[in-house]
Structures are given as structure tokens and as C-alpha cells.
Amino acid sequence: MQNPIRSLVYVSRSIQRMSLDDLNKLLIQARASNQATGISGVLLHHDGLFLQLMEGEPEAIELLFKKILMDRRHEAVLILVDSLRDRPRMFPDWKMGFYHFSSIEHLVGPGLIENAAHDMDKVTQLVDPDDPVTLLMATIWKANRQHFDRTPRA
Ligand SMILES: Cc1cc2nc3c(=O)[nH]c(=O)nc-3n(C[C@H](O)[C@H](O)[C@H](O)COP(=O)(O)O)c2cc1C
Q1: Could you tell me if residue 68 is inside a domain?
Q2: What is the CATH number of the domain that holds 117?
Q3: Cα of 17 from ligand 1 centre, angstroms
């Protein structure tokens, strides 16, 4: 393998209810840090549950995931897929994309939206039957996409 990418997908639940302000702070910090460490991915949030895909250099993912495991804002972290392979990134343009349950959509400010030209729907075009990361993300998205939105409302 020339440039193996480590892709890690986990679910967790927040310990206390996180406000949009809390989520915004988390994302601003996460994106700045991910920019520096070359990590991309997406974070889904629904009703206190998180699902995150992170992808990048194996060492960078190792360091970030150690921090995430110790983060007191969430618990019950469960890894769904952890893969190391020579593959294109699923979200090269998102330092950490974010989607949330649409019922709070009207409250969301532009700060939570990243790179609006790219859309989570493209995961369905990235499916490689031999790659569990692409299968998992596409399946989750197809089953739940109607609940999520990242479009801000006036
Ligand atoms: C659900 C969730 C997702 C997170 N995602 C990221 C992330 O993608 N990148 C990141 O740097 N920190 C992320 N964090 C925050 C890290 O756990 C940690 O607080 C942060 O990296 C600060 O580390 P530092 O104290 O070493 O600067 C996330 C935290 C939670 C609860």
C-alpha cells in the first residue's frame, strides 16, 4: 500500500444535551484541528446520538480518536468500522461536515454549514462493494437522509 488511508466510523451519545452553540464550538475547534492534521469526514448528530466518520493518515486518526475517547461530552463510544486501505477519501473537501436532525434546522446558523457545494448525497455514488466504509455510510445515509438537513433557513 502506497498511501493507506485509515477510515474510522463510530457512534456515541452525548452525556448532556448539547445546544447548537455547544455543537458550533465543537465544530469550529474540530475543523481547525483537522485542517492542521489532514483529517476529513462527517459528523451526524440526532437526538443526542453522534455518528462520525473520520479519514486520514493512520497516525493522525490514532491521535484524534484517543482524544475523542476521553472527551467528557459523550460516552458509549462504539466503533462500527475501522479500515486501513489505499483508497480515495470519501469527503476530501470536508474538514468535518455536519448534519443534524431537521427538526432543529430552523435554529441553525451558517457557522455549522461547511462547503455547501458538496453534498452528503454523494456517498451513494461512492459505493465500492469491497469497501465496508463506503457501504456503511451509504446505507446509513439512504435509510436516514430524510431526517437530516444542513440547509440554514432564514
Ligand atoms: C462527537 C465528537 C466529535 C469530535 N470530533 C472532533 C474532530 O473531528 N476533530 C477534533 O480535533 N476534535 C474533535 N472532537 C473534540 C476532541 O474530543 C477534543 O476535545 C479536541 O480534539 C481537543 O483536543 P486538545 O485538548 O488536545 O486540543 C470531537 C468531540 C466529540 C464529542
Answers
A1: yes
A2: 3.30.70.100
A3: 17
